[in-house]
Every structure is written in structure tokens, then in C-alpha cells.
Amino acid sequence: MRTLELTLYLPCPILCNYCPQDVLRDNYTGQKEMSLNDLEKYLGMIPKDVRIDLSGMSESLLYTHFVELIRILENNKLNYCVYTTLFGITEEKLEALRNYPPNPFVIHVPDVSMRLKINESYLEFFDKISESNNPPLTHYACFDSPQDGIKINKNYDPHSRAGNNKEIYTSVKNGKAHCSLSKDFDHNVLLPNGDIILCCMDYGLTGRLGNLNDNSYEEIRNNIGDVNKKICGSCIY
Ligand code: SF4
Ligand code: SF4
What we know:
Distance between the termini: 16 Å
Number of helices: 6
Strand order of the largest sheet: 5-4-3-2-1-6-7-8
Bound molecules: iron/sulfur cluster
Strand content: 5-15%
Largest sheet: 8 strands, mixed
Shape: globular
Structural class: alpha/beta
Radius of gyration: 17 Å
Low-confidence stretches: none
Order of helices and strands: EHHEHEHEHEEEEH
């Protein structure tokens, strides 16, 4: 399935130590947060068969216009999924998610590698969502030991983000450019400045396909053959 992940602002304040936000910061130019006008414009350009992923390279629940974002997705009849740490959740945002539920809905469990720490309010939301299963929870993702208070039991694996985090072991596929997630390299990422890049492992922004301010989504997708896929050789996928 064609997928477009949204990175709605950057950098991500959660600062997981396995996430190379410094590499992203050093390579990105342009506005730091997507305006509401740009969001409406960009999502209006996306074909209906493309799933929108609220994941990307920053926590989407901390986006200023999150509630409006869900309304725009619904108005445009776009399917979407959410990968979230739940940092930034409020009653209003939870209501929006319940009214137009994502699928899948994955909670990236707060762990000891995150700079941001959970509190009582966070735990109330975490337990409420887990117990009610509303919106329906697909699964938990866990990349390190959960922070105190989180009630789940899950194994975890380190992740190098296609070699962008130099401190984590990287599996190398002999430098080959293939992707087990997307045969046609069609799990791309939209950045706040309108750029679309190869994927959510491309923190160095080496695989730029184009910009929605200059071209249609399909025109940008047609550039995929020329895009730099060198990082794929250092990626676990
Ligand atoms: S892994 Fe996700 S939550 Fe952690 S810093 Fe990166 S984008 Fe933010
Ligand atoms: S870097 Fe990894 S996830 Fe991204 S396109 Fe290459 S193989 Fe797929």
C-alpha cells in the first residue's frame, strides 16, 4: 500500500537516544512547523489510495493543529494510521481519534531512552486508552526498557535508523537497495516545507523526491528511480 508519513514539525522534543534528530537538524532547511494552510493544501493533493501515517520523524500528537489534522483527513476521506508515544495527548485529541479512528493504532511505549518523562496525567491517558481499547489498539512498540509505571511486558530491539545512529549496531545487506517494507519504495515522508523524501529512516535527507509546492504527488513519485537509496544498504528493512 502506498503510504505518506507526515513529519509535521521538527525537531522532536522527546529525543529518544536511538533517534538521530541531530542529523535531521543539521540537514533540514525551511519552516520548522507545517502551517494549517499548507497542511490543507498538501493533504488535498494526496490520492485516496495513499494511506497517511501520523508517524514520520516527530511525535504527531504534539503538533499544534492535531485536531484540525484529523478533521482534514476525515473530510478528504483519507485512511490513516498512528504511531505515537502518546506524549501530547489531551481529551480533545483523544475525542478526535475516537471519532475518526486510525488503523493501525500503535503505541510507542515511553522508555528509559527518552529525554521526556511520563507523569501522572500521562499514565491516566495510557491506562484509559489501553483498558478501553478505544481507539482500537493494534499493538505496542518498544525499543528499550519501559519507564516506571508503564504496565506492559514486551521485548525490545535497538534500531539504527538505517545507520543514521552510529552508536547502534547496523545490519548491512551488502549495500543492496531493496526494501522489505515497500517493494516500490512507496512509503515516503512529507516534511513541513513540502519536501517528500525516501522514507522515515532518511534522517540525513539524502533521498529527496520533490516538493508538493512544485509538483503533484504522482509527478514526485515518478522520480523514485533517480532517488538516492544508498542508506537502504544499512537498513534492517
Ligand atoms: S523515535 Fe519518535 S518519539 Fe523518539 S525522538 Fe524520534 S520521532 Fe521522537
Ligand atoms: S532505508 Fe530502509 S526503510 Fe527506507 S526505503 Fe531503504 S530499506 Fe526501506
